[in-house]
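anyone seen this seq b4? input:
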Amino acid sequence: MTVEAGGIAPPVVDARVMEVGVVRHQDALWRYTRFSTESDYPCLRFEAINPDQGWRVLERLDICDITLQGGTTLDFRDTAYTGFSVVEFSREHSAFTFEVEYIRRTAPGEQSVSCTLPLSQKGSFGNLVCR
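predicted toks r here
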């Protein structure tokens, strides 16, 4: 049974969500959602939200894979382990930064890369860079 307060239905939260963070920067809210890396959707989602347009999501970017140095693509759904840590926002650089730790199914040992996702003043995302 669903109970509504003031005629507003409660938001639906995906059971795979492990962490949500929000930052107000320029004229938008920038939200990130970290999904469980042990689920069928081991991804990191970034959204630009305009509070002046009824909290409309202007842009959404789901990061489920990254391009490593050398041009190799790492798909998080095809690893033995993937973890996200230290998701932070830098006002100075107008960018999110985060770490990705992973273990490939075909190679021993944990690897780690640092990623940067720049933001534009128009409420959109730049190109993700991982090193």
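The chain has a mean pLDDT of 89. The longest strand covers residues 79-90. kinda curious what u guys think
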